[in-house]
């Protein structure tokens, strides 16, 4: 009996190791062949099911399938980002990544690159004759900080501060010139009974955006690229300035009370219902800021300003957060003539259709069609694309190692709510980077 | 103490106590049910009114728009169907396998049955999250991801301990003489199982199905880990779809979807209500 | 043992359930245990690290201890509802007049609503800006000053995320306890009443001792389900603000799927198993004590 048990335990352990240890042996399609053999391919996405990207790609895939019988594209979307990331990571752990999948240029993705799992998109686009057609900023957003490009962008959106002119007037304040001006707007706005800024605090990324502003103005992207590797400290001058600013935003009651349990929709609704004066979001929300359901008193008063500057800024006023959305990675294992042909077909036609649906495109040379009946704001906002500078402020959530990223989002909430101090914040972040950065950037 | 109180006075006090009791019962019913009523009312509320912050007043108008959007953005029928398949098959297996194991342990008996029972009991206390990563890897190796089995196997596995435990407790109540008489009539262990044990266990079966059924119907974590194809999603997972890409939620449509997905189970529940409660009452006390 | 049973019949009945149990529950537990001695990010190769995951967990990870403390509070709140409130309601119901049956059904309703829906619902109930149900009620009865962003305050969030979990299954446990109360012999209660015992005394000296075994079963069920509690905190606050509502389970989940530290996550999982075993052991010990004293 005992012997049996020992044997069983041994077998189970060996099995366990075998399961987790060895790498999957998915059949590799022969790369030597240039023949296009239609089959089903899958794309794991994290985009809204009824959004422009999926609608357009679905249509293009149908057209492609009509010409290539046997081809089909299986689109699997998980719009909720945390759920999506869990899925992606489990799939990667089980070595089951599909042909195409969405991901940002995160340290985790960089690991996949180092394992040779992703197709070099720079090479692929050049190969397809498309590389030069893209907006350089759209590609830059997808790059790792070593310049490597492994994801294809499908969007191009500018992030602004939207504000309500009527509420500004009511409080007797004007558009802020510097980041510090934003803080000083809060008291007069509060005195006028207005929430200065509505923010989605439930999801971690919006506060992290705010965190990235001061360093971008003071030091460009250099600071975060060093910080994440532990070469710069949160307590350095630049970092400390950002931390203090976040703390000031909190102590001046700039955000709505209870922001940390309020979601994306709540923040937007506070702005569109005229309760908050400012709201930071990208042009992807243009339609909901200008559509006819928004009360006229708000709609007619919405305007925007771009990221304010700071004293001694190293980046220009027309350089701010610009995103080309979560990118699409191509699995190396299954990249074959069919994939190449299909991607060329999609990318060739995609931007034109995206422009027709009223969006800016990752490729240049397509003028977005302004939806009929939308206000002048829509046009003006999109026209800013022609004034863009050369650099973009990167969101920090794609830069930091995942543990520090999670921690910073949590700690930012505490800092802004006044449940933590700048010094404690800096100390915790620095400690986390010291511990976790080597696992990803070592 | 009682002798000092006159009979009418005592009756009056009793009545007072009873009214107070009833009032409390009603109050608790309100606490339990109000949120669900609110859910339903909100699903009929115009989206704009909800967005403008008036979420708890009496709606100014009723609209089916939210339902139209809910059905437009997700295949609710599919989710409901999948949930029924998963819950149905799992419940069947939990009952059958639980009963079989309990029968082997308690009725048939064998050397080491205590150890086996202990092994099962250990499962009551194991958190399901521990199994996620290994199971995911195991399933992907044998190609079980995105199948009903990938949800059913762990759901049954983790529910089995409770089921075995309840059946073993119940089988203690069946007098040995019943079995012995049947054996004398020449019934083998299989006939005894199907003709005596099974029919006698109805109430325990109801308890097991109901208690586990609820947890299975609500399962989010296994479905969320092992299923990603749209066509295989169960209700809890499907509802998650209403959370948009950056966290945006169409609240009123979401509530409409919740109402739609709750309805089938609610109907089952109301129809079988008496049987369930009766079964629970007789099954649980012997558990 | 049933006369006429054979080795084959035992195997026929025992092997299928045992096999499924081993594959679905035992194997992954063993795999987790093995994994907890490795460092693995899911992409690169496994690296054997011995006990260092455990050393980090116990000595160098304040979030882990925070999550552990939170889990205990979460457990307490759930037990308050599922054992306390449900026992109270079950008793109440036994004295209630007509409409008992309807009330029982209605109590059970929240249990069939999916967790995702429950957390959507409570997000609105706790909301502050715009005012949610609780804050409106407070304002309605003139206690507007007490209105607060319940899910944003470090000191209220934990109870706020625990309550829905406790609330939704109150009906289920209530029903089980109610059934047990029904089984208490009426003669015993009558005899006590004639002796002049108050309702409370009847409960404490007659009813409760009688239903104690069922109560303990309920306690084990409620305790182990609560220690595994995950969905509502995960969906409602995702552990925040800060780590104020982080449970061991959500922390484990994040460690595995956010930080891709599967080895460390496994060691947290192993700790959760041990914690559950200890909890059940304590409950059973309590039961034995109670019996000896009774």
From TrEMBL, chain A:
InterPro entries: Bact_solute-bd_prot1 (IPR050490), SBP (IPR006059). PROSITE patterns: PROKAR_LIPOPROTEIN (PS51257). It comes from the Bacteria. The keyword Repeat does not apply. Keywords: Signal. It comes from Propionicimonas paludicola. This is Raffinose/stachyose/melibiose transport system substrate-binding protein. SUPFAM superfamilies: Periplasmic binding protein-like II.
UniProtKB/TrEMBL annotation, chain B:
The keyword Cell wall biogenesis/degradation does not apply. Residues 80-272 form the ABC transmembrane type-1 domain. It is found in: Cell membrane. Its main location: membrane. Coiled coil: none annotated. It comes from Propionicimonas paludicola. Keywords: Cell membrane, Membrane, Transmembrane, Transmembrane helix, Transport. The chain crosses the membrane at residues 20-41, 79-103, 115-139, 151-171, 192-217, 251-272. It comes from the Bacteria. One of its GO terms (cellular component) is plasma membrane. This is Carbohydrate ABC transporter membrane protein 2 (CUT1 family). SUPFAM superfamilies: MetI-like. The keyword Cell membrane applies.
TrEMBL record, chain C:
The keyword Transmembrane applies. Residues 68-283 form the ABC transmembrane type-1 domain. The chain crosses the membrane at residues 12-38, 72-93, 105-126, 166-184, 210-227, 262-287. InterPro entries: MetI-like (IPR000515), MetI-like_sf (IPR035906), UgpAE/MalFG_permease (IPR050809). PANTHER family: BLL4140 PROTEIN (PTHR43227), DIACETYLCHITOBIOSE UPTAKE SYSTEM PERMEASE PROTEIN DASB (PTHR43227:SF8). PROSITE patterns: ABC_TM1. It is found in: Cell membrane. This is Carbohydrate ABC transporter membrane protein 1 (CUT1 family). Belongs to the binding-protein-dependent transport system permease family. It comes from Propionicimonas paludicola. One of its GO terms (cellular component) is plasma membrane. Its main location: membrane. It is a multi-pass membrane protein. Keywords: Cell membrane, Membrane, Transmembrane, Transmembrane helix, Transport. One of its GO terms (biological process) is transmembrane transport. The keyword Transmembrane helix applies.
